[in-house]
Q: What sequence folds into this?
């Protein structure tokens, strides 16, 4: 039996350019897609200079864990990219 996702979060992250947003998305998307959890689901997408993050979870603990994991990957990728530009 699959549990109902009762908690939802939508987040828009703006970047300095379309290219930066695209590079960050390409860096984190495989890791986020590879995570298969029964308690949460995370989807990332790109629109111009913005990355959209949508997380659904069965409880606040799963929501926080998914959010922290995705944000760590995004922040790390963006900082790494800035260091090489």
A:
């Amino acid at each position: 039996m699959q549990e109902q996702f009762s908690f939802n979060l939508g987040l828009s992250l703006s970047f300095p350019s379309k290219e930066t947003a695209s590079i960050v998305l390409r860096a984190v998307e495989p890791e986020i897609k590879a995570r298969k959890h029964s308690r949460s689901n995370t989807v990332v997408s790109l629109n111009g200079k913005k990355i959209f993050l949508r997380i659904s979870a069965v409880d606040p603990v799963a929501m926080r864990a998914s959010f922290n994991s995705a944000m760590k990957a995004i922040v790390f990728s963006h900082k790494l990219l800035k260091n090489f530009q």
The domain at 7-83 is CATH 3.30.310.50 (TATA-Binding Protein). Strands lie at 7-14, 40-47, 50-57.
